[in-house]
Amino acid sequence: MADRREPAVPAVPLLIACALGIEKFALRAGDRRRGGSGATVLRTGMGPANAGRAVRAACGTEPFREAAVVASGFCAGLAPGMHPGDLVVVEEARLGGVSTPCTGTDLLAKAVARAVPGRTVHRGPLTGVDHVVRGHERAQLLAAGAIAADMESAATLNSAMETGSRPVAAVRVVVDAPEHELVRIGTLRGGISAFRVLRAVMPAFLEWHRSLLLPRR
C-alpha cells in the first residue's frame, strides 16, 4: 500500500547572532560536538549599531526572512549573587524605550538547565547598553528592573522583528557580576568558565528551535 503521508514541512532556519569571534568559536564548537545542526552562527561585531545592521541585513535576505533568531554570547550580570558561568534566559530585551518579548522562555529555560546541569539559570529582562557597565551604573540598571546587560542582544532582537514577525530568544552567559567585576583578579578564570558554558548550551537552542510551531502564511 502506498505511503500517503504528507511530505515534511521544511524547517524554518535558525540564526544565532553573537558579537565576538570567541563567542562564535564557542557556539560552533558546541554545534560540531553534535555533528552539526545546520544552524547558522552570525558574528555581528560589537555594539548595538553593528548588531542591528548585521541582523537586519541577514533577516532581509534568503534563507533567513522567516528565520528564528537567538542572540547569544556573554553578558554582565546585574544582581548580587550572580557568578561567571551563570546563564540568563532573557524574557524581554529593552533598548531605547523599545521592549521585545522573547518566545518560548519556559521551554528554553528548561532546555538550558538540561544542557548545562549544575549551572544557575536566571530569568528576567535584559537591558541594552553601549559600553561595559560597572559599579553604580550596574546597580542603577538593576533598580530599573533588568537582571543582565549587554551591547547586542536587544538590538539583535529588535532588528530581527523589524524585518518581520518571527520567534526570537536570547540566552547569555554571565562573564562578570557585582562581586566579580572584569577588572578584578580572577577575570581569566571567569572567562574560561563562561566560554565552556557557552560551548555547552547549543543543544538548548536546537531543542527550542524544534519546538516552535510557526504560523503558515
Q: So what's the overall shape? A: globular
Mean pLDDT: 86
Cα separation of the termini: 33 Å
Helix percent reads: 25-40%
Major β-sheet, in short? Answer: 5 strands, mixed, barrel
Strand-residue proportion:
15-25%
Q: Order of strands side by side in the largest beta sheet?
A: 3-7-6-4-8
Structural class: alpha/beta
The H-and-E topology, N to C, reads as: EHEHEEEHEHEHEHH
| Uncertain stretches | 1-10, 183-188
Helix and strand topology:
Layout: E1 14-18, H1 21-33, E2 40-43, H2 48-59, E3 68-77, E4 87-95, E5 98-101, H3 105-115, E6 121-128, H4 135-143, E7 148-150, H5 153-162, E8 168-176, H6 187-200, H7 202-211
Helix pairs in contact: 1-6, 2-5, 3-7
Structure description:
Mean pLDDT is 86; it is low at 1-10 and 183-188. By secondary structure, the protein is α/β, with parallel strands linked by helices. Strands 3-7-6-4-8 form a 5-stranded mixed β-barrel, surrounded by 5 helices. It starts with 13 loop residues before the first strand and ends in a 6-residue tail after the last helix. It has helices at residues 21-33, 48-59, 105-115, 135-143, 153-162, 187-200, 202-211; strands spanning 14-18, 40-43, 68-77, 87-95, 98-101, 121-128, 148-150, 168-176. 47% of the residues are buried.
Please sum up the structure shown.
By secondary structure, the protein is α/β, with parallel strands linked by helices. The chain has seven helices and eight strands, in the order βαβαβββαβαβαβαα. Strand 4 and strand 5 form a beta hairpin.
